[in-house]
Amino acid sequence: MKTVIQDILNLIKGNIPFAVATILSHSGSTPRTAGTKMLILADGTIRGTIGGGLVEAQVIKKGQELIGLKKNVLLDFNLNQDLKESLDMICGGAITVFIDTTAGEQIGLYQKIAQEMGDRKRCMLVSELSGTKDGTLALNQCLITDSFGVIGKNLVPESFSDDLLKTHFTKNAPVITTFGNRKITYEPIPATGTVFIFGAGHVSQKVAELTALLDLPTVIIDDRKEFANGERFNRAEGIHVIDDFSDPFGTLDVTPSSFIIILTRGHLHDQTVLRGALKTPARYIGMIGSKQKRDRIYDNLMEEGISGTRLKTVYSPIGMEILAETPAEIAVSIVSELIAVKNRK
User: Fold this and answer.
1) Percent of the chain scoring above 90 in pLDDT
2) Model pLDDT, residue 91
3) Which of 139, 152, 167, 255 is the most buried (most CB within 10 A)?
4) pLDDT classification of 170: cutoffs 50, 70, 90
């Protein structure tokens, strides 16, 4: 999402016409899920994808037609047998795609979204879609910030309770509601979770390469400057060389969107980091090692008063079981597990 928002801002600043295609809802088996975005330029160039195949081709064509007209539409696709064959994929669901050609007029809104994401905060884009005589849709939008402030005209119906709004805010996919001839969509934009990697060895290096591909800001923490440096981790957002692991979190800003990966060079260091990690609200905590090593560390921590229930939330041995052996393979298994947690609805 961070890349999409930045692309939108770059296109606006470059005065380049474009459309935004967003999957608002999906059911059954579909190539991509609700919330997925793709940018369409007038020449048919795209940034991102909503799944490829015939659906994407039709969305691109429609987007090109509408860009010059500054009109917006909702498109419904049923992935029936005929369409499945054209898509060359086994699907049996349905998706609704919204094509917005007026995003270029909303630079202030997207700048605020970028700011919220940069501050590691969630926000929610609220869109009011109302029908016009030619079948296209008029669009009004506002942004609900992390503190529930409103940027733009408040489009949330008065009948909505605070609890219902908060429920929509914390979802991982858009919600569509209908009020008369208006559709109002609530599109949560999740905070970009920082990946904190403790340990700067060979596996950590490969993990950091993969998290960079996923646009996940990554911070490396180790007590060895010969390992934790910009030459080995040239795409890391931050590198912290600490004196020792006695206080591994220090001033780190660990939030409920953060991911903690424990890959230090020793069991005692892993235990120390895990002890600190369990005090944080991190969404994911994973620790490398065998089951025997894990159980020994867990026993030690339970003797200190940490509950077994809390320890069960840790992903250890870390990573999906793919019989990984090399640092690169282990990194793939770790990041695969991280993706599964991140995308869980």
Assistant:
1) 69
2) 55
3) 139
4) confident
Round to whole Å and give the CA distance between 72 and 182: 14
* Alpha-carbon span 100 to 139, nearest angstrom: 8
Q: CA-to-CA distance for 124 and 277, rounded, in angstroms?
A: 29
- 141-150, 151-160, 212-221: the lowest-pLDDT one: 151-160
pLDDT over 90 at 110, yes or no: yes
- 213 by DSSP, 3-state: which? helix
What distance in Å separates the CA atoms of residue 225 and residue 217, rounded to the nearest whole number?
A: 20
Which domains can be identified in the chain, with CATH numbers? 2-104 (no CATH), 106-189 (no CATH), 195-342 (3.40.50.720)
**Which residues does 163 contact at the CB level (< 8 Å), separation at least 6?**
none
The b-or-e profile of 209-227 (16+ CB within 10 A means b, else e) is bbbbeeebbbbbbbbeeeb
Identity at 193, one-letter amino acid code: G
Locate 13 and state its tokens.
């600043």
Residue with tokens 């996940």: 216
d(CA 324, CA 330): 5
Strands (E) across 66-181 are located at: 73-78, 94-100, 123-131, 137-144, 150-151, 175-179
CB of 112 closer than 8 Å to CB of 143: yes
At residue 112's C-alpha, the angle toward residues 177 and 208, to 5°, is 100
Q: Partners of 94 in the beta sheet?
A: 27, 78
In the chain, count H helices and then E strands: 10, 15
Q: How many CB atoms lie within 10 A of CB 291?
A: 9
CB-based contact 96:23 (threshold 8 Å): yes
Please report how many Cα atoms fall inside a 13 Å half-sphere around the Cα of residue 133, on the Cβ side: 0
- Residue 246: other Cβ atoms inside 10 A: 10
